[in-house]
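Quick illustration, no need to memorize.
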Amino acid sequence: MRRMNTTPSTPTTDDTEERKTADGTAVVPGPAKKAAPTEGDAVPEGVAPGVTASDVTAMDVAATDAAAEDGLEVELEPDAHADAEAAASAGTGAGAAAVVAAALGVVSLSGAWTGRVAAERETLIGQIKTSGGGGSAAQQISEIYGDAWHSTALVNGVFALLALLVGVFVLVRPAFGTPSVHPQAGWIRSVAWAGIALGVLGVLISVGMYLDLFVAMPSAAAGS
């Protein structure tokens, strides 16, 4: 007597495909999609085929190490802190020079202790020369007063000329040498122009004093 197999049979792959075809829902297998390369695996343009991104990175590191061994400085990116320090140092020097120019211009107009010392020296020399009483009144005026007056004008003129030169140097300095990324500060130019103006005025006044254009030399009375 034959026994019946009561275990349900598992449908085979062919039966499953036939059922999907009958239902109209069969999916045609397509080509397998490749994973997109990540950012680290991207290879720069112009690299020979077969060279990976890791190879390019290794070559960059080797080139940097070789340059460091040769004593060459490899600048990977600009240093903003170093640029700021360079600009600050350049501005500090120009600002100090502009202030010096203005100060020299003020001294040339108000007078300096060096001018007073020079005037007193000339006065003393004149008194010594005329102490014997042999000189005329005009000679005494020239030796005691005139020489001291001219010495003061000469010293003040030197200060005025220095103020003029320093002020001009501050203004024309950016046009020479290594050009700076940052422009010269406005207050530096203003102070430099003030020093130039005071210097020009001091030079004119000193020339007028030395040539006795503003105040005439005292003259002795006739018969003295």
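Helices lie at 13-23, 53-69, 80-110, 113-129, 137-172, 186-210.
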